[in-house]
Here is the input.
Amino acid sequence: MEENKRLVKVPTMAQMAANGEEPEILFWVGCAGAFDDRYKRVTRAFVQILEHVGVKYAVLGTEESCTGDPAKRAGNEFLFQMQALTNIEVLNAYNVKKIVTACPHCFNTIKNEYPDLGGNYEVIHHSTFLQQLINEGKVKVQGGEAFKGKRITFHDSCYLGRANDIYEAPRDVLAALDADLVEMKRSRANGLCCGAGGAQMFKEPEPGKKDINIERTEEALATLGAGNGVIATACPFCMVMMNDGVKNKDQEESVKVFDIAELIAQAEGLSK
Amino acid sequence: MIGIENIIFLIVAAVGIGLFVWQIRKIRKNVLMGRDTDLADNPSERINKTLLVAFGQQKMFKRMLPAVLHLFVYVGFIVINIEVLEILIDGIFGTHRVLGFVGPLYSGLMALNEILAALVIIACAMFLWRRNVTKVPRLATGVEMRAWPKMDANVILITEIVLMLALFVFNIADLKRVLLAGEEVVGAYPVSHFFVDIFGEDPDQLYIIAKVGWWFHILGILAFMNYLPSSKHFHIIMAFPNVYYSKLLPKGKFTTNPAITHEIKAMLDPSYQPPAPEVDAEGNPVMQRFGAKDVEDLTWKQLMDSYTCTECGRCTSVCPANITGKLLSPRKIVMDTRDRMEEKGEHPAIFAPNHYKEMGVERMETTEEKTLLRGYITPEELWACTTCNACVESCPVNIDQLSTIMDLRRFLVLEESAAPASLNAMFTNIENNGAPWAFPASDRFNWADELYVPSKN
Here is the structure.
């Protein structure tokens, strides 16, 4: 296998502009995708898929900045707009039209809140994008048998689901894996938050009986049953929270938390 | 024939309706304490939503048993109103079962009415059972469920049962009198037929019993109507406008403050000309408050929300913060808003049950400061919110609890800089590094190093 590998040179908008080119899509990586060690693997998996299907894409690289979502949800409208207006300036300067992102928080903010400030783009969450690739036959999930009989439960992200009504795309992606997709008691519109939204990711939870991610993990574990299963997520915050929950329950040997992009990349033999 | 009884009825009905209008005007005044917001867009989408969610009870059906029971009471209420119309006409003009001329349709209507009235009694009895015996947690627990909200719910349910019983007393006595006199029965009475034996056979007595039942029913309805504005039961009116004016945008889209946009644009580009500041009637610039500290900083829709709240607690029962034992209860936020609004504005009621706090045990540390924030709602509650929208999703009457929570949070951050320290650190990181974590922006692209894909042959 070693000799069949190709080093990927991830293209940036700046390079493309210098060459007088425009990509089909801008991949918005997001802060978690760029800095969180666990979530960087999702970013890389998604780029492997993009490379595999040959979509003309680019990233902003070091020119990207926080969308301002955590500032806005924490009530800091001033800082949010500061970030938003600066980002919009960059995006508009590159004439960006279509944005794909793996982060539901970035997705929601750019899609719903940037237009008020002069940023109008077609924004797609990576679950919808992957669903399209599967539907078009560009991703065939050849290694799908690897998941046969494995139990997978999908944890809805609030900012994808309730906030933007995207419930089926991530499930369709998982369905392509030919795994045993099981639903938690609270799912789709009734899904339970992982506990990280609304800037909770960046602070200690308020005092209570237990942490929200523990409650949600218990629900996921009860749904998966004993043995090895997968909690599938489509959001960096959810991934952190579910991972912490699984560790808290000493289940990290048997239960894995994966982003849907990682599962597809694995099934396609793009990554280990 | 119009007699003295009809004149008395006319006066009583006029006083009842007049009192109700007087209360509605007070409520309108309270709601208009709020900031203006333009919700006149997309009338067709709004009408659709109203038909589905308010008339069609769509969101009630997330929980089957209460939905079905509620449906009985709701449909019963609508159909019985047709009889109330007849009662009003009969009462004013001294007629008897004036709508009887429609024949079979009237029979069908009366039969349906009786069946629904019976179902209303059963449903209300079950609701009482759920509240007082099995104590469904969302109805029985929570710091906001103090003496008044609990009593209010029971008052409504018992009143509804009594009103329906009065209707049956009238129907049974009237039916028996007509049967004994050998007159033609106008309408059909499948339930009353069962119970004709409970009264004696003296026609005068039956006449009086029927009159008492009739008067009790209509007086009860007029009294009940005037009780509504002091009660959670006000939702039977407010649900419709509240759903009509509900949020049509994606739930994840939060409001943007244009004043801040102008300020930032002017900072980024010195040549930017912000529009002239708003001035009041005397030409003084309007001081804009960022976020909400008190009820007048909220919009009229947010205030209308609190008059629509049924206190059903569906929001609180799905709130992840509440489920895991944190202080936040979305229902409390809405109920507090109403309490504070009525404290600051006017009482809608003839009797003022605005002593919610005094009537219950105080279990939340509030300060003496008499504003919605801190006087009623504590920062601890607000900081527990994950903005997950579960409360908004669950509300059967489309209340947007989250928008109020967010406006209060904004005040804490923008006007008082009173965010938790870790959030302030996050703000600093975003400002300095363009990320909520303390990583240098120059490392942002490091994930792309040493990235391989299988090469295609």
User: Anything to note?
Assistant: The mean pLDDT of chain A is 95.
